[in-house]
């Protein structure tokens, strides 16, 4: 049960570094900060100080799901005077969590503003099960945070969590409770806080396509930074497609040699290791996807495994150029796939794996004489159900090779497709093994059908969670296929709970396909809209986006402060004059 106690605002004023003549002050009225002229006879309150005290959830994003008590004084602290208490179970991950926490604080304040009296902050992280260092669907990400002022005047912040991942979330929450007060020219923290918190959904993701256009490791890292700041936990790496093959497969390096846009546009084993470590420290799993049997082409030119590659006119054989699809009848194809699976399992150490499986073109297979002849030898026809048998032949053999390389039969994710239709899905995709990711419209009857059949689902409905929508078409006139643009409000209100059967929804994922995005635009396509999804999945709030608007503007500023080029949502005036912009 949520317990939000009102924040008793008590501001400690300094004399050495105050902005002594501020023109404006802010007062909390009806959970909104009201801007008024500062009066000489009264002490002004900064906008940041007002915001952390005025909203029931302060400056937190996503909002906590348990008990929330914010009170006491706003006490000045020095980011260079923070003590980390070793609790006997510290490991490399915990030390990294502390380091990132302190780095984020350093970004809040300029060095010349660190003068004046300040309290010593003592941070202690208690991890009950420090040996649980891999994020899984069953991982407990809960935490509790208690901030108190000691008799000595020092501020104590104690975080308790079952696992590092919950503890890291607690550190993020602690960091979000520290504000920069531009009137007092100091960092400040409330001195009496108690929060209990845990996510509603275990899978909270972002998909980033790095094949249509190459995305640099630095941009991937910034994406992970934004995820960490918003408590998203799954970076779904759509690393290859028909357009390019940037992934350097150690079992078959010729794929990236032929398939990358250039020798510089690749992800080496060292790059993958760097991304993995970066994400792990920030509480994010990296989920690799090797999409098949469609969405293949570049890189495979020296094999006979791909049919329909760059066939024209392309719209007869696939949904976008260049076309390309595996020929399931080639026995050596599965040796090549096993090598890629071996590479990915060894490098990514996944607890779940994405095998793609969307947008398979029956027309492509039906136009390939060798495939049709092979099917005839099996006694199959050329109807839809016959091509589903062919697809199942591929999927069965691919999964068998995957299982030969994995230590356990881990869950497999596949996109909604012809194979997930009601008349095929139970026959070919056992519900105890497969998780279905929904990319079709939110009102697609297939969603309810899959729920009724007992499948676990991940929601990525394009009409709310495709972040590449709302731009000009790149293959013709007009707008791109999934227009219009999806605003953060629509994303925030897109709830898995609206379908019922919420226990079957593992969560949801926003997707950025990069036909029309690259390093220059990834940040502002993703952020801050993906943060709206983050609160939906963490808290599953009963309220709409309007109740979250003030905090969303704070989160956008937080992302920018951390070096992420998050898009603007409103004129800054709206943030300084809360509740004056919504119609």
TrEMBL record:
Assigned EC number: 3.2.1.52
Coiled-coil intervals, chain numbering: none
A biological process from GO: carbohydrate metabolic process
Chain ranges of the Glycoside hydrolase family 20 catalytic domain: 201-540
Keywords: Glycoprotein, Glycosidase, Hydrolase, Signal
GO molecular function ontology, one term from the record: beta-N-acetylglucosaminidase activity
Enzyme class: hydrolase
UniProt signal peptide: 1-17
Listed InterPro entries: Beta_hexosaminidase_sua/sub, GH, Glyco_hydro_20_cat, Hex-like_dom2, HEX_eukaryotic_N
Top-rank lineage group of the source organism: Eukaryota
Official protein name in the record: Beta-hexosaminidase
